[in-house]
Amino acid sequence: MKIALAGAGAFGEKHLDGLRNIDGVEVISVVGRRLEPTQQVADKYGIPHATTELAEALAQPGLDAVILCTPTQMHAAQAIQCMEAGKHVQVEIPLCDSLADGEAVLAKAQQTGLTCMVGHTRRFNPSHQYLHRKIAAGELAVQQMDVQTYFFRRKNMNAKGEARSWTDHLLWHHAAHTVDLFAYQAGPIVAANAIEGPHHPELGIAMDMSIQLKAESGAICTLSLSFNNDGPLGTFFRYICDNGTWIARYDDLVTGKEEPVDLAGVAVSSNGIELQDREFVSAIHEGREPNASVAQVLPCYRVLDALEKQLEAAR
């Protein structure tokens, strides 16, 4: 399978690292905003073609699929562009920053019949898969999820400490992970509320946010997000269930009493990005709907849209 990767930044390289481990996959083109650093990434990974234009990558002979790791504001339009070119596409989270754009991507996927998947990595992390299998088997049910998503970010910097050309967002990007995961683990969301702290004078975004969710099952979720946290960074999940408590941190899972859980054998890798890429490739080969298809994750973006309207009304 021949793949192009658009977005040669920090997350793009995580995908390239994961794709290296998948048999039968060849990355034949990489797309970036500036040619020189994009060519450096191509050289590092042995990719034969580098460009600043997605259309040029889409025209590469034999190309089957595209992975988009570009700025959020470009995701929906580029996903549609890929499908219009007849290519399967995986879009990094978030799919969009407006519901109308997300609905347009879904419509194009349904029209073309191509595989369109969104990078909701939490569905693939072994820690969350371990619990998902117990939930699916009826061994436990979520009563409450308590989630903290914390960063220290006062400037537009990416995960590699490099300047970003776009502004990150607590609601449409970071909350999307947890909103989708909560629905994946506890069932459809029927109620959602949000409040936000002050907006940053330069970035123009809320630096702190609190979200409450309730699932049809009766389970609840409390999500705290911050770009102001000067401490451990990342997202930490506490699952309070009817039959035990678990805490997921990065790729580790412990019980509520901090007892380590052995995740060996849950998946072929401990790398969530690699696992979602494996799902993308397998779904294309097998002609089936992937886990985290655009159809499966769009309810998350409908919740985010409702929360954005709440926040706007309260300003």
Key terms:
36% helix, seven-stranded mixed beta sheet, 13 strands, 315 residues, six-stranded parallel beta sheet, alpha/beta, 24% strand
What does this structure look like?
Helix content is 36%, strand content 24%. The protein is an alpha/beta fold and 315 residues long. The strands form 2 sheets. A 7-stranded mixed sheet has the order 8-9-10-7-11-12-13, with helices on one face. Helix 1 (10-19) crosses helix 8, helix 5 runs antiparallel to helix 9 (294-314) and helix 7 crosses helix 9 (294-314). The termini are far apart. The model has no long low-confidence stretch (mean pLDDT 95).
**Rg computed from alpha carbons, rounded to a whole number of angstroms:** 19 Å
β-strand amount: 15-25%
> pLDDT under 50 segments (min length 5)?
none
Number of strands: 13
- Total helices: the number is 9
- Main β-sheet, in a few words? 7 strands, mixed
What distance lies between the first and last C-alpha atoms, to the nearest angstrom?
49 Å
In short:
By secondary structure, this protein is α/β, with parallel strands linked by helices. 36% of the residues lie in helices and 24% in strands. The model has no long low-confidence stretch (mean pLDDT 95).
Topology of this protein?
Blueprint: E1 2-6, H1 10-19, E2 26-31, H2 35-45, E3 50-51, H3 54-58, E4 65-68, H4 75-84, E5 88-92, H5 99-112, E6 116-119, H6 126-136, E7 142-150, H7 170-186, E8 189-196, E9 208-215, E10 220-226, E11 234-241, E12 244-249, E13 252-255, H8 272-286, H9 294-314
Parallel strand pairs: 1-2, 1-4, 2-3, 4-5, 5-6, 7-10
Antiparallel strand pairs: 7-11, 8-9, 9-10, 11-12, 12-13
